[in-house]
Design a protein that fits this description.
Blueprint (H helix, E strand, L loop, with lengths): L4 H4 L30 E3 L8 H14 L2 E5 L5 H16 L12 E5 L3 H4 L10 H27 L13 E9 L11 E4 L5 E5 L6 E5 L2 E4 L7 E5 L1 H6 L8 E4 L7 E9 L5 E2 L3 H4 L8 E2 H10 L4 H6 L21
Parallel strand pairs: 1-2
Antiparallel strand pairs: 2-9, 3-4, 4-11, 5-10, 6-9, 6-11, 7-8, 7-10, 12-13
Helix pairs in contact: 2-5, 3-5
This protein binds N-oxalylglycine and nickel (II) ion.
Pfam families: 2OG-FeII_Oxy, DIOX_N
Keywords: Iron, Metal-binding, Oxidoreductase
Family: Belongs to the iron/ascorbate-dependent oxidoreductase family.
Length: 328
């Protein structure tokens, strides 16, 4: 088992194998604080504020591929309790860590009855609290997708069923790092799924790449960060964009986050929505599982991956690529 970074990283310099090449190192960690992604208040999203909120979501999804939501209906208590459990998970002594535990714990959350029995048994509240949060996160995601479909002029329920059937949780833990300028928690990537709902706690670290510069995503109390995944960009025929992002570390405190990935079932056929195609469809139809294979082989290199699914692409996806490790 690979040793957790959190088990050896204290009071040591950054080992050679964790130092990124100069061109991808974060280096100077000061990012603009005057600019930030939109914060959208979901209060009355199904009532009198609906039109306005749909417009705000659409604009943010076009400009950044990212936004935060507040007044989303998930209780402060559940958000805090789940963050406590996620932190506890990485604070447990080594002997309690089961084989698949790493600084990144991933598991499916749907269908809940089938997968919950494979979730960690410790911390003891893990299953109960995370089950509650995953149900709420899925509901919130579907609500936002419904607002997005309205904004795009698609029929109600367009993203329901198979396109949003899967739910995966990634719990990320970034221990303090002696020199954050040399390394990254996660390299630049887009999420391959439909929509991501991120509980980022109260520590800075997430940055998005927008207009050729990095901007930090401010941790806001009781907010979730929402970002557009590759499949939503494709289905919208590039009307929305999947925002590129990365995670930087810091030297003072550990950061724990929980990302819920709402994704199509693996055999779903993905293609741009007919009503959004207009003159030309930017992408061809494909099976979601083929996208995932390409995504993994290209280390999440967004342009290359999306390029392989464009209708004009000369490459029909049959070329055989060696698998490489990817940390998303
Ligand atoms: C991810 C991700 C961001 C974070 O898990 O894909 O981008 O802040 N996480 O942990
Ligand atoms: Ni991501």
């Amino acid at each position: 088992m690979e040793k957790l970074v959190s088990s050896w990283s204290k009071d040591k310099p950054v080992p050679e194998s964790y130092i990124f090449p100069p061109e991808t190192r974060p280096g100077n960690l000061i990012v603009p604080t005057c600019k930030t992604i939109p914060v959208i208040d979901l209060c009355n999203a199904e009532g009198r504020n609906r039109t306005d909120i749909v417009q705000q979501i659409l604009k943010a999804s076009q400009e950044y591929g990212f936004f935060q939501v507040v007044n989303h209906g998930i209780s402060e208590n559940l958000m805090n309790e789940s963050m406590d459990v996620f932190n506890e998970l990485f604070e447990m002594p080594d002997e309690d860590k089961v084989h698949q535990w790493r600084d990144n714990l991933r598991h499916p959350c749907h269908p809940l009855q089938d997968c919950i029995k494979h979730w960690p048994q410790k911390p003891i509240r893990y299953r109960e609290v995370v089950a509650a949060l995953s149900i709420e996160a899925k509901k919130l995601g579907l609500r936002i997708l419904e607002l997005v479909s309205e904004g795009l002029g698609l029929e109600s329920g367009y993203f329901g069923n198979k396109l949003s059937e899967a739910l995966h949780l990634f719990v990320n833990h970034y221990p303090p790092c002696p020199d954050p300028s040399l390394t990254l928690g996660i390299t630049k990537h887009c999420d391959p799924n439909l929509l991501t709902i991120l509980h980022q706690g109260d520590v800075h670290g997430l940055q998005i790449f927008n207009n050729e510069e990095w901007i930090g995503v401010e941790p806001l109390p009781n907010a979730f960060v929402v970002n557009i995944g590759n499949q939503l960009q494709i289905i919208s025929n590039n009307k929305l964009k999947s925002g590129e992002h990365r995670v930087v570390t810091n030297s003072r405190v550990a950061r724990t986050t929980a990302a819920f990935f709402i994704a199509p079932s693996e055999d779903s056929i993905i293609e741009p929505a007919i009503s959004l195609v207009g003159e030309a469809s930017v992408y061809r139809a494909f099976e979601y599982k083929d996208f995932l294979l390409d995504y993994l082989s290209h280390m999440g290199n967004n342009e290359v991956v999306l390029g392989r699914f464009e209708s004009q692409s000369l490459n029909n996806g049959t070329e055989c690529l060696p698998p490489v490790r990817c940390n998303v």
